Amino acid sequence: MNGIESTALEPTKSDMRGLNPLQKIGRLIPVYGLLILTVLLIIVFSVTLPTSFQTLINLRSIISDKAIIALLSLAAMIPMAAGRIDLTVGYGIVLWHILAISLQTMFGFPWPAAVLIVLVLGGATGFLNGLLVEVARIDSFIATLGTGTVLYAFALWHTGGRQVVGMLPDGFYALNGTMVLGLPITGYYVLVLAVLMWLVLEYTPTGRYVYAIGANPKAAALNGIPVRKFVIGSFVASGLLSALAGVLLASKLRIGQASVGLEYLLPALVGAFLGSTTIKPGRVNVWGTLIGVAILAVGISGIQQFGGSFFVEPLFNGVTLLIAIGIAGYAQRKRGAAPKSAPSPGK
C-alpha cells in the first residue's frame, strides 16, 4: 500500500558515541535481534534434533524449499523500498511456472526461448502494475491484487484445471536440480541476486532515490527525483524476479498446475516485512529480508520435525507476519516521534 515508509532506524556512529558497553548492546539488539533469534533457533533445534536437523540433507531441503520464497521476498521488497506493495509476486508465479512448461510441451519452444518469454511477460506485468499505480493513481494494494487475480484467471483458463505435463529437456531440469559444492544451485542464485540488489540499493544513486521515494515521495519529487520513473522501474524489477521464481518452480516441479503457487504469497510477504525489522529497522533491506526468510525456514523445519501438524506452516507464517507488521509499525512511530523527544540545542 502507498503508506509503507522506508526510513531506517539503525544507530549511527554519533548515536553510539559516549555510550557504555551495555547501552551499546541495548541499541544494537533491535538491529540484530532477528539474526540472533535465528542463530538461537538453529542451536536449539540442533541440540534437540541432532539426528535430523543438523544434517546436510536437511540443509539441502531447506535451501531447495525456501529459495523460491527468498526470490519472491526479494521481488516484493523492491516496490516496498519505494513505498508500494506488489501482490502479483504470489499470483504471477502460478501463471509463470505453467507457461514455462507449456511453451515447451505444447508450442515447441526451446527451453531458453521459453524462459526468455516468461521473463519478458513478467517484466511487462510489472510495467502494467507501475502504470496502474503511478499513471492511473490506483492504490498499489488494489492494483496488484487486481492484476494478480487476472493472471491467476489466465492460468486457470490456459490449463482448464488440468496439469500441464510433458517431457522437458535436461537443460531445463538443470536450472533447479544442479548441485554445486553439495548444495542446490538455487541457493547460489539467491545469494548472487542478493549481493547485486544490495550493491544497487546501498551504493548507487538508483538505490538512494528508491529509498528516498519510499521515505517521502513528495519531498523526493521536490528534490528533482523522477518518482514515476523509479516506481514503475521497481515494479518491473519485481515482475522479472517473480517470473524467474516461476521458471525455477517449473524446473523443480516438472509439471504445471494452477493449484500451485498461491501458497508462496504469504511467506514471501512475511519475509519482506520481517526484513524491515532487522539490520536496518524501519526500512526494508536485502539482508534483513534473507534473515526473515531464514527464520521462517528454520522455525518451520524444526517444528515439523518435532511432529507439528499440517497447519503449523500457515499458522507460523501468519503469526510471524502479524508480529513483523507490528514491529515495523512501532519502528515507524518511533522514527516519527524521535525528533519531538530530542532535546533542543540550548539544553
Beta-strand percentage range = under 5%
Low-confidence runs of at least 5 consecutive residues: 338-347
Alpha-beta classification: mainly alpha
* Helix/strand order, N-terminal first: HHHHHHHEEHHHHHHH
**Which strands sit side by side, in order, in the main sheet?**
1-2
Number of strands: 2
What is the CA-CA span between the terminal residues?
Answer: 40 Å
Number of helices, counting only DSSP H or I runs of 4 residues or more: 14
Q: What fraction, in percent, of the residue positions are helical? A: over 70%
**Radius of gyration using CA atoms only:** 21 Å
- Characterize the largest beta sheet: strand count, sense, and whether it forms a barrel: 2 strands, antiparallel
- Shape descriptor: globular
